[in-house]
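[agent] plan:
  1. take the single chain provided in the ticket
  2. run structure prediction with default settings
  3. attach structure tokens to the ticket
  4. add a short note for the reviewer (M.T.)
[agent] executing step 1
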Amino acid sequence: DLIRFLGYFSGKKRSLDDYFGLKTSRKEIFDQIYLLESRILSEPPIFKKEGPFYEISLLSRELGKYFDEHTLGYQAVPWHLLDTPEKKETYFSWYFFRNGAVSDEFCKGKLAPRIIFSIKKNHEFGEELAVLLFKLGLLPGINRDKVEIGDYADLKTILDHGWCIDSEKRLRLEKILKEMPPKEDKFTPQDVLSLIQKAKGGKITWN
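[agent] step 2 finished; step 3 output follows
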């Protein structure tokens, strides 16, 4: 549960250091986070419903200290806690639950779907996120503003492994994959590392 908690709140600074609240119109998200925080705490968090919105209010100095210690103040993935592939997958799936947009934009007249994670306000964490995706067998792209995943096989891997736990994102991703031409051949992270090692050894050169 603590790995899920860290994943969900990672990457974005809170308005208050010890605040782990939530405001959403989607009951699915409210239910998941309310149950998660209820399991972590000795008492359930305070919540209310106003109109279409569900709101959780949670101030916890203990959780704030734990979070900051394990994420170095929002700048790092808690690698020491993610010591198995399953824990890395859990952390990413809950990070993706809150963050990231599934885009079906066109580029140069062609469908160019991708998952985009904005890192404008936290580039340090973006670099850590890219490494995590690499360790999960994906090949992300990264620049100053975003980390993105656009390869057909990578998007299908995320869907097939159940790493997309948000129902709206999952439906959008399923729709996009049906419209994309499948591509079976792709470079794996191991392929990329092999190429880098060969380049450093002078066995190949980059043109």
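[agent] step 4 note for reviewer: Residues 27-40 form the longest helix (14 residues).
[agent] ticket updated
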